[in-house]
Amino acid sequence: MTISLVQGLLLALVGFICALDAAFEAFYWFRPMVVSFFAGIALGNVSLGVACGAVAELSYLGLLTVGGTVPPDPLMAGMMTTVIAYTTGCGAETALGLSLPFALLAQWAGIIFNTLYAFVAHKCDEKAAAADREGFRRVVFTALFFRAACTSLLVFLCTFALQNPIQAFVSSFPEFLIHGFEVAGGMLPAVGLGLLLMVTLKGENLPYLFLGFIMATFLEMPNVLPIAITGACLAAINYTHEKKAGELEAKLANATVNGGEEDGI
Fold it and tell me: Which residues contact 194 (CB under 8 A, 6 or more apart)?
C-alpha cells in the first residue's frame, strides 16, 4: 500500500509532537509503543500500529543513553516499523529489522544536533548572566522546536517523499535476507528484555520482579492491565514511604544541627 500526502503530513505531525516530547521527556510519547499507535491512527490501521509498537517497544526497552553512548532512535524505530509493515505487507518482526537503518539515521542526526547545539548552552549562559528570562526561554524553545521540525522533516521524507525508492529497495532483497530480518526481529524483544533486566535487576527491585512474574504466570488474567494497575499501586506506596523517610531524615538532621531537642533549661 502507498502512503498519501495527507497521511505523510499526519505522520510528520506525529514525528514533530513526539520529538518535542522527547526533548522534555514529559509524557514519553517518543517511545515506540506510542509512536506506532499514533502512526497506526494516521494510516488508518490502529491494530497494525499497536502490533508494531509492541514488538518495537520490547526491543528498545533496555536501550538507554549512558554517557556519550547514544542508542538507535526509538521514535524513528516505532515510526518506520509501522510504515514498512503498512507499505510492504510484511510482519511486524520483519518490519522491525528493516527499520533499524532508519533508527540509526535518526541516531546520527541526533548526535549531529547535540554537537552543533553546543552554542545554545553559551547563549543560555549569556542570557542568564544578563538576567534575561524571556531571552533565555526564547533560545531554549527555539532550539527545541527547530530540532523537532527537523525530525518531522526526516519522518516526512522517509514515509512519503521517498517511499517509492524505499519500497523498491526493500523489494530487491532476496527471500533469505527477508527471512533473516524476520528472525532477527523476533530475537530483538528478548535482547531488549535482557538489557532491561541488566539495568533494573537490583536487590531492592527483586520483590517487584517476582511479584509480577507470579501474577503473569500463575494467576488467570484476561490481559496485563491488572498487573499494570498493581505495579502503579506499588509504585505509589513506595513513593509515599520514601517521601516520609526523607522528611524524617530531614527532621533528624535539623535537630542534630540545632543541638537536639529542648531540654527545658
Answer: 62
For 223-247, b/e burial (b = at least 16 CB within 10 A) is eeeebeeeeeeeeeeeeeeeeeeee
The segments of the chain whose pLDDT lies below 70 read 62-70, 181-182, 184-186, 188-189, 191-192, 195-196, 199-200, 257-265
Are 70 and 110 in contact by the 8 Å Cβ rule? The answer is yes
Given this model, what pLDDT does residue 40 score? 93
The one-letter amino acid code at 242 reads: E
For residue 220, give the 3-state DSSP assignment. coil
d(C-alpha 16, C-alpha 33), whole Å: 16
Query: What are the backbone dihedrals phi and psi of residue 117, each rounded to the nearest 5 degrees, phi first?
Result: -80, 10
Grid coordinates belonging to 93: 518482526
The string of pLDDT tens digits covering residues 89-148 is 888 888 888 888 888 888 888 888 878 888 888 888 888 888 888 889 998 899 889 989
CA distance 77 to 64: 14
Return the C-alpha cell found at 38.
Answer: 499514533
Quote the CA–CA distance of 183 and 91 in Å, as a whole number.
11
Query: Could you tell me how far CA 200 lies from the centroid of its own chain?
Result: 17
